Structures are given as C-alpha cells and as structure tokens.
Amino acid sequence: MDTSLLNSDLKAVEILVSNRRKSVGWTWLVVLAGVATTIGSSIPIGFSIGVLNTPSGLLQKWINESVIEKYDMVLNNHQMDIVWSSIVSIFLVGGMVGSLSGAWFADRFGRKGTLMIGAVASFITSLMFVFTKPLNSVELFFLARLVAGLSGGLVMPVIPLYLTELAPINLRGAMGTVCPMGISSGVLLAQILGLPNFLGTEVIWPYLLGFFGVLVVVGSAAFPWLPESPKYLYVIKGSRQRALRELSRLRNLPEEFVCCELEEKVDSVEDDVWTLGRIMRTRGLWINLALVCALHFGQQFSGINAVFYYSVTIFRSAGLSEKNAQLGNLAAGVINLSMAFIMIPSINLFSRRFVTITSCTLATAFLVFLSFSIRFMHTFTWMPYLSVVGVLGYVLTYGFGLGPIPYFIGTELFDVGPRPIAMALGTASNWLGNLTVGFFFPVVQSAIGPYSFLIFATSTALLTIFVKVCLVETNVMMLAKRQRSGSLSKA
C-alpha cells in the first residue's frame, strides 16, 4: 500500500476521532447515493448475470422457432449449444471490454457522469430485450446481451470508486460493500422473477429480460441531486471550490468545517495524467495491481457460479422435490445476499487481511469437502446431506470475504490518480474469470465430474498464499485504533 496514502488516511481518522463530529456519518446524501447506485446500477448488473438461468428452456425453444421461421432451418443440439453459449458469453465479453474503458470514462466525464452514461445505455438495452420477441429477432437478442455487458462493465468499477470517494473515512468500507450487495440482490431477483409463477412464462419472458430498465429509471431519478466526487473534482479536475461545495453538501456542514478534510488530500494532487503505461512503469504499484486483479479473478475462479450450477442437483439428491430443490437454490442465494447485508455495518470491525485470508481458506476447505461429498453422494445415504452442508457452508464463507472485498480493495490500495485504472483492470479480471469458468467448467465437469471443484480449491488455496504474503492491512480505522492503543501503552 502507498505509504503516503496510508499516512493521509490515518491523519483523517485522527481528525475524525479528535473532533467527534456527530454529523460525519450517514447523512441523507450519502445514503441517497448508496441507494440510487444500488437500485439503478448494481442490481441491474446482477440481474443481467442471473436472468438467463431459470428460463433457459423457454428461450432456447423461442430461438429455435425463430431460426426455423426466418431461415428455414432446424438447429440440432450441438448448434443450439453453440448459439446459447454465445448469447451467454457475449455478455461477459462486453463486460470485460466495458470495464477496460471505465477508467477513461471516470476521468473524462466524472464518476457520476459515467454512471449516468451507463444508466442511459442500460435503459436502451432493456427496451431492446422487450422488443426481441415482437420483432422475432435472435440478432437483436444477441446485440442486447452485448450492450448490456458493455454498460454493466462500464459502471462496475466506477460504482465502488464513486461511493468510497463520497464516504467519510469511517464509512468507506461499508460503502465499498454496497456494490457487491446490489449485484447479489440482482442475481437473486432474477432467479425469483424467472420462475413460472412470475415472469418466466412463454408469453411474457421479454418483460423478464427487460425488467431491469424499471430499476434503472427508479435509481436514476435521484442522480440530479447526487454530488460529483469531491476527490475527483479536486485531484483530477483541480476545481477546489466546487469540490469544497460538494463536500459541504455531503457532510451537511458549512464549507469552513470541511475544508480540513479536503486539504488532507493536498499531497495527492497531481498534474500528470495517469495511464496504464505509467502504472506499469511504476514498480511500487505492481504488487497492489496484481492483488486487485488476483482477488477479482480469484473471486470468480473460486467456483461460485459452478456451485450454484450444481446446487439444484445436490438438493434434489438429498431427497427434495424439483420445486423444493429450486427453493433450496434460492435459499443459497438468500444466504449470499444476507452476508452482503451483514458486512455493510460490520466490515470495519475486522481486518481486511484477516477476513480475506479466512474466507479463502474456508472456501478451499469447503470446495474439497464438496468435491468428495458429491463424488460419493450415491455411496452412502447420508452423503447428500453433507453435500447440502458443503454448498451452504461455501456460500456463507464466500459471502463475508471473497464476495465483497475485491470490489473495493483497490480504493484502499491506490491513490486517487491511478485508482480508476486499477479498478478497471480489476473488474476486467473479474469478467475474464467469469468468462473462463463459463467456457471451461462444462467441459471439465463432463470430463472429471465433481473433481472439477478441486481446480477451484487449488485456485483459492493459491490466492490465500498470495494474499497472506503480499496484502498489507488497509482498514485504516483498525490501524488508527492500534496506533492509539500503542501510544497509550507507551504512555
């Protein structure tokens, strides 16, 4: 971690503690920013990630009928698999490309401006989905998935960047967990609405795919009242007065009371423009950049999507009916979402390093456990129940560390200048990990079955070692507390 950044953050904590400013916390504008970005940006990303799972049979049937009508040909199983995997994966490819452009947009149009651009693109995409069936166009469906990925990838690194730059130092960790919480909410919402009892029917599935447009409109309605990031205005744009005005609104304090907080970042102001080439030439940033990318890639390569893919089969083998097995899968999603909610108020109570290492270690253990419990599921009558424990235990341990930490750790490892590029590369790694698992897991799973989870276990084990060796503590609230305790002990 950059020493000057750490010292600046520790100084900010000391000022916060010494002044005891009761109003430096969850002001209405900070809360509004969190709620608006969650509803209008994060949840739509998660919704698009999970929306194709439940109604996949209906959609593949429509694709085949559309191809027959327009091209007078019938897709065999192999051809359908190619078309369907292309539709699924093009969203991930778009997400990766969009993430790589996020840094440029964040510095060119601002954090808030980028979120607004993403919202417009996302709403247009929702309309494309709605008109897919009336126009009987598989091509429009494919294009909509691509644009949804591009818009989601664009805003995914910017959401935690924006929220952590708005938050006071004591709420930075909590605001950093809002983005993964929104994504988990979106995935779960898509699973629920995709059921036949709701929107997952042969008649109205286009409205299921485009439902996130409603969320975009609701969340974006608050954007005119949201401030731009004061750190962006001050450090990137050099506009001190506007930054001071926005910070005053955020903290609900007169400008003379917040000028000290703004000036704490005076050493971070840089005239030079940060580029990817400059970051790659700066040796001091290599480890931090590798950590951000490894945590994002490792989050997806921990096998979270594969576990959810297997969960219905596991619950069914444990004696549950098809309907109850689907409800069990939803229960796993609820656990994942519940952990995201729990981490918002509790993230600052724990060491980032300890939480990450613990989550990766336990995930490794549960993945090994899950691999062998699935392998011997039909050997012992009680083994399916252990498989259920493995699924729920893995989802729980993923939820408190591997889930939230990668999304905001870059905001604590990097200063304002190189931060957008680091966040963009991190989220691009996240999309790449998701794409890699999506492409290769079905092949590997068909070849070695449940032993495929040992590959994910190896990945999380290696990530544990890397984090243990290279990640320094970034929770400045805990560091400041230790510093004060050490000072009192010496006294």
TrEMBL record:
Cellular compartments per GO CC: membrane
Residues annotated as transmembrane: 26-52, 82-106, 113-131, 143-163, 175-198, 204-226, 285-310, 330-347, 354-376, 382-409, 421-441, 453-480
Subcellular locations according to the entry: Membrane
Keyword Transmembrane helix: yes
InterPro entries noted in UniProt: GLUT (IPR045263), MFS_dom (IPR020846), MFS_sugar_transport-like (IPR005828), MFS_trans_sf (IPR036259), Sugar/inositol_transpt (IPR003663), Sugar_transporter_CS (IPR005829)
Classification via Pfam families: Sugar_tr
Domain Major facilitator superfamily (MFS) profile: 34-475
GO molecular function, one term: hexose transmembrane transporter activity
Membrane topology note: Multi-pass membrane protein
Claim: Transport is one of the keywords in the record: yes
Family assignment from sequence similarity: Belongs to the major facilitator superfamily. Sugar transporter (TC 2.A.1.1) family.
Name by which UniProt lists this protein: Major facilitator superfamily (MFS) profile domain-containing protein
